[in-house]
């Protein structure tokens, strides 16, 4: 101890610093360790790409009822730089979902014979029973830390405008249907306090109790479409751009996005699940503190700007459907009601790939450059 104190923190060995940096869990920690001194900066790896990223993919059309096909991971910035996560599992070129730092991969976008969850940093693969025409897969927890205490929910195409939701637990031979009634295109799936919540593009919210000893088919239905249109008090009514669910700091939130020049283009509420299947939205959340929300197809989540220096605090990041390829991510600043639009990448405008933002993807741990 005396020798280390005499030399100061800058005398720590490169091997020890490298081991310490490998245990850091946030991008901010890796940023700070590089700011200590030249020796620390030379002995540790910096993030190869700040988190989170977007999964950009090609569909048969813009509808979320079509499975995603070819895909790439990209930074949510102007230019949309592509991110390399290493060699993909052989024979699984298509992505059908991203959740909890895992990618759901298949060998065919419509009629797969293999369905695998893949975590790129550990190169872990978990095989699931196959499903046809999968449009999304959302996980309740991190598979590497939750052991068998997790579930997967998938959306599956049923006819021209409908989907059904199915559930799988580790050890199950097949998927279990959650709701006998088919839903429209599913926008969001959220797990919160032992329940699964999902909402379709018509604003129908289904709640499923996943606690042990209960029937996962026991579904409560709430119609946000009876409540959300009445939130706008403007002289000229504004249409909803989307209604999403997200969990932030232990609370479940409802986010309402508006088209046009609404004075508050994004509003956040604490929902009340009242009797007779009534959703009530009375308490509005004006400030998320250091957190920001990430909304897209399927999985949604909240991140702290203190841990993820690439993001701005108190914002809503929305993975957009890029109409006419003008922009593909919108950032709603809750403190100023300003909407920042990240333009559609110029390099992709020149191609015919019709690449669209599909979902947000946040790797479990920082992805570091190789020294």
TrEMBL record:
Record domain KIB1-4 beta-propeller: where: 89-325
Coiled-coil spans in chain: none
Gene3D superfamilies with a match to the protein in the record: 1.20.1280.50
Pfam families, A to Z: Beta-prop_KIB1-4
InterPro entries listed in its UniProt record: F-box-like_dom_sf, KIB1-4_b-propeller
Matching SUPFAM superfamilies: F-box domain (SSF81383)
Protein name: KIB1-4 beta-propeller domain-containing protein
């Amino acid at each position: 101890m005396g020798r280390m104190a005499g030399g100061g923190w800058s005398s720590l060995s490169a091997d020890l610093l490298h081991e310490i940096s490998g245990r850091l869990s946030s991008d901010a920690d890796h940023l700070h360790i590089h700011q200590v001194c030249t020796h620390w900066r030379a002995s540790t790896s910096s993030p190869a790409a700040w988190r989170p990223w977007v999964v950009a993919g090609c569909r048969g059309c813009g509808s979320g009822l079509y499975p995603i096909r070819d895909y790439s991971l990209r930074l949510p910035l102007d230019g949309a730089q592509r991110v390399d996560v290493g060699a993909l599992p052989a024979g699984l070129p298509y992505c059908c979902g991203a959740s909890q730092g895992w990618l759901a991969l298949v060998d065919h976008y419509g009629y797969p014979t293999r369905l695998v969850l893949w975590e790129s940093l550990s190169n872990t693969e978990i095989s699931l029973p196959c499903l046809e025409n999968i449009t999304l897969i959302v996980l309740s927890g991190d598979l590497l830390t939750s052991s068998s205490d997790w579930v997967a929910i998938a959306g599956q195409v049923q006819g021209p405008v409908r989907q059904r939701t199915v559930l799988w637990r580790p050890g199950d031979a097949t998927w279990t249907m959650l709701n006998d009634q088919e839903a429209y295109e599913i926008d969001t799936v959220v797990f919160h306090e032992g329940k699964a919540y999902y909402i379709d593009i018509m604003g129908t919210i289904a709640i499923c109790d996943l606690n042990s000893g209960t029937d996962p088919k026991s579904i409560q239905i709430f119609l946000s479409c009876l409540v959300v249109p009445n939130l706008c008090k403007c002289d000229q009514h504004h249409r909803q751009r989307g209604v999403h669910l997200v969990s932030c700091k232990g609370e479940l939130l409802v986010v309402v996005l508006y088209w046009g020049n609404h004075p508050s283009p994004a509003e956040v509420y604490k929902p009340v699940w009242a009797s007779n299947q009534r959703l009530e939205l009375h308490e509005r959340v004006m400030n998320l503190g250091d957190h920001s929300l990430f909304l897209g197809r399927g999985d949604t989540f909240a991140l702290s700007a203190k841990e993820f220096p690439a993001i701005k605090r108190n914002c809503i990041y929305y993975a957009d459907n890029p109409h006419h390829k003008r922009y593909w991510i919108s950032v709603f600043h809750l403190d100023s009601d300003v909407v920042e639009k990240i333009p559609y990448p110029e390099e992709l405008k020149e191609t015919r790939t019709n690449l669209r933002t599909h979902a947000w993807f946040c790797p479990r741990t920082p992805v570091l450059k190789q020294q």
